[in-house]
Amino acid sequence: MSLEGTSAIVTGGAGGLGEAAVRKLHEAGAAVVIADLAEEKGEKLVAELGARAAFVRMDVLDDESVGSAIAAAGAMGTLRYAVIAHGGFGVVEKIVNRDGTPASLGGFAKTISLYLNGTYNVLRLVSASMATEDVDGSGERGAIVMTASIAAYEGQIGQTAYAAAKSGVVGLTLAGARDLSSVKIRLNTIAPGTMMTPTMAMVGEEALEKFASSVPFPKRLGEPQEFGRLARDLIENCYINGEVVRLDGAQRFAPR
């Protein structure tokens, strides 16, 4: 399946899992909008990729900046694909702290806002744009891939906010796919385990070895390019819809 003549938006596309998705879609022939707040990294990636790549500074919770990314994608080709892979915030806090005080509502709300509300906002605006296009040769208007986490299923101690947000993305997948079926858009989700992103690489060798030891096989952290490849597969395979695919080497998070 060739993606030539089409365009895609990747949130969080300037680094980590999002960057890997940008590279794979660009490699497949799509024009790609790197939608991120990290301007310097985004522009550097555009300079590397050259033609069919553009950077748009985008806040997933801001309709105007999402609209700018949609417009930029439309200027480069028919907008048919999106990978929602942004990150940037996390709070580690137990519901009741050691001193007996409750967790802050603010940290929980901010996490839900970024990972769940932000995902939904991009999903609704991008799919509304796709719905105005003619169907392609396979009879669909587009495909969208969201990003959850295996923490949605096995949230660890202190991860209640993140686990709740990512569980929301998992719950959104099938219901969203059913909603979007009427406009011929597919929706799938990737739930990564522990991935070797630039942020993860900063934790140190000892911590990385500990994380890798909990993965049955292959006994290592996942590579971002494996996420990018799966995102592209979910976009290119027209019969995969409403699915959440774990990308984790059979890893299951322990309580801590």
TrEMBL record:
Gene3D superfamilies, per database record: NAD(P)-binding Rossmann-like Domain
InterPro entries noted in UniProt: NAD(P)-bd_dom_sf, Sc_DH/Rdtase_CS, SDR_fam
A Pfam family per the record: adh_short_C2
UniProt KW keywords: Oxidoreductase
Name this polypeptide is given: Putative 3-hydroxyacyl-CoA dehydrogenase
Any one Gene Ontology molecular-function term assigned to this protein's record: oxidoreductase activity
Highest taxon of the lineage: Bacteria
Coiled coil regions, renumbered to chain: none
Family, as annotated: Belongs to the short-chain dehydrogenases/reductases (SDR) family.
The keyword Chloroplast appears for this protein: no
Record flagged with keyword Oxidoreductase: yes
